[in-house]
Design brief:
The chain is mainly α and about 250 residues long. The chain is built from eleven helices and no strands. It is found in: Cell membrane.
Length: about 250
């Protein structure tokens, strides 16, 4: 009877095999194991972080800010359909900003005061131009050809998009707030910030739609009288001009 001398390497190999089996059972694979996939962690913030972010966002979007006032001004001046198209355009601009912040571009822009100042004055000038146009055309009946071809809706969408993109406060807000809710252990920071930004847009869209529908309905009642229609159109134009002046007069974009 021959006895084989125990090889210390055998114990090491057995331990390695047990470790590999345990990893496969738990879903965690060794990066050095050839042909074995590693489990990827979805870039989703924790439930607690999402709830805290949504609560803060709710307070932020419920209180009427520049975007809400802009939407109300469009609804009062042009009607419900234009306001809804404005909401879609404005949220599209916010989505672009969310994507930029998630990729780190927003933080770069935030460091350059000149860039934020240029955005601030560009947005303010655009609001003033829209307000002057609304004042000049107050009381005008909608062009049936614009409604038939969808030009009015596309125009309102573009206007909302420009206002959303030239809002430096949105860049500063997202660049400062989104990183606070990122958990490094739950996937990429860019993915988590993008998820939070999409949740913000979803909640903001519901609030903005409520303002647009409410102001648009009020405008429909005023439109039954030419005098009331001129008054509401002029009020909407003055509101936009006042918003533009207010944005330009702020000392800092944040």
């Amino acid at each position: 009877m021959s006895l084989r001398r125990a090889d210390p390497a055998d114990g090491t190999n057995r331990d390695q095999r047990r470790y590999a089996v345990a990893q496969r059972g738990s879903g965690l694979e060794s990066p050095a194991t050839p042909g074995v996939r590693r489990r990827t962690v979805p870039a989703v913030p924790s439930t607690a972080a999402i709830v805290a972010f949504l609560l803060g966002t709710l307070v932020f979007v419920v209180v009427p800010g520049p975007s809400v006032l802009f939407i109300i001004g469009r609804a009062v001046a042009l009607g419900r359909r234009a306001a809804l198209a404005t909401v879609a355009g404005n949220l599209s601009g916010v989505l672009v900003i969310v994507a930029a912040v998630s990729l780190g571009i927003g933080a770069v822009i935030e460091r350059f005061a000149v860039a934020l100042t240029v955005l601030k004055f560009a947005g303010a000038a655009y609001l003033i131009v829209l307000g002057v146009q609304a004042w000049r055309h107050r009381g005008d009946a909608p062009d049936p050809s614009d409604a038939a071809t969808g030009r009015a809706g596309r125009r309102a969408f573009r206007q909302g998009l420009v206002v959303g993109l030239t809002n430096p406060k949105a860049i500063v807000f997202f660049a400062a707030v989104l990183p606070q809710f990122v958990d490094p252990s739950r996937g990429t920071a860019a993915g988590q910030m993008l998820v939070l930004g999409l949740l913000f847009c979803a909640l903001a869209s519901m609030v903005d739609l409520g303002w647009a529908l409410g102001a648009g309905s009020a405008r429909d009642w005023f439109a039954r009288s030419p005098g009331r229609l001129r008054a509401t159109g002029g009020a909407g134009g003055l509101a936009l001009v006042g918003m533009g002046i207010g944005v330009a007069a702020t000392g800092r974009p944040d």
